[in-house]
From TrEMBL:
<keyword id="KW-1133">Transmembrane helix</keyword>
<keyword id="KW-0812">Transmembrane</keyword>
<feature type="transmembrane region" description="Helical">
    <location>
        <begin position="49"/>
        <end position="69"/>
    </location>
</feature>
<protein>
    <submittedName>
        <fullName>Uncharacterized membrane protein YhaH (DUF805 family)</fullName>
    </submittedName>
</protein>
<dbReference type="Pfam" id="PF05656">
    <property type="entry name" value="DUF805"/>
</dbReference>
<feature type="transmembrane region" description="Helical">
    <location>
        <begin position="81"/>
        <end position="99"/>
    </location>
</feature>
<feature type="region of interest" description="Disordered">
    <location>
        <begin position="142"/>
        <end position="162"/>
    </location>
</feature>
<keyword id="KW-0472">Membrane</keyword>
<dbReference type="InterPro" id="IPR008523">
    <property type="entry name" value="DUF805"/>
</dbReference>
<feature type="transmembrane region" description="Helical">
    <location>
        <begin position="20"/>
        <end position="37"/>
    </location>
</feature>
<feature type="transmembrane region" description="Helical">
    <location>
        <begin position="105"/>
        <end position="128"/>
    </location>
</feature>
Length: 162
């Protein structure tokens, strides 16, 4: 699998280790990119709207890559990639507003707390699902096992060559 396919494709399967290393490296590289841009342009551009825009583009880029990696992990678990919406996207989008509602107090505070708690539980489960649970052994409907040996050369059975 090429680097392009790994980061931008929603096809295929990846193992847990490759998923985790990819997530860490993407986070580090995008944080370094944003820091470098800030270092380069901070002297000339002191516009918070500019930096908000840069941060939003960076976050959307990261979210796309995370989704592509997460879909491939779900495929490895023999699950549809659409589950990424239920276990990552929706809980992430509603968590912050739910926390805000919970902190406002009043009659909606309980609902906000419940929604925030459910979002956190779902996000924690997604972490378990994507990082801790092994993928399907052998080939599944999304492709070959990423942990299966890739060597297609037969092992010699002749004495002395083993």
């Amino acid at each position: 699998m090429s680097l392009w396919q790994l980061l931008f494709s929603f096809q295929g399967r990846i193992a847990r280790t490759k998923f985790l290393i990819s997530i860490i490296l993407v986070n580090v590289l995008l944080a370094a990119l944003e820091l470098a841009l800030h270092k380069i342009f901070s002297v000339e551009i002191d516009d918070s709207l500019f930096w908000l825009t840069v941060s939003m583009i960076n976050a959307m880029f990261a979210a796309f890559i995370w989704a592509a990696l997460g879909v491939k992990r779900l495929h490895d678990r023999n699950k549809s990639g659409w589950w990424i919406l239920a276990i990552q996207v929706v809980p992430s989008l509603i968590l912050y507003p739910a926390i805000e509602v919970a902190q406002m107090g009043g009659p909606l505070a309980t609902i906000g707390t419940i929604v925030a708690t459910i979002s956190i539980v779902v996000l924690l489960w997604s972490w378990i699902e994507l990082v801790h649970l092994r993928g399907t052994r052998g080939e599944n409907r999304f492709g070959p096992d990423p942990l299966a040996p890739t060597s297609s050369t037969p092992v010699s059975a002749e004495p002395g060559l083993a």
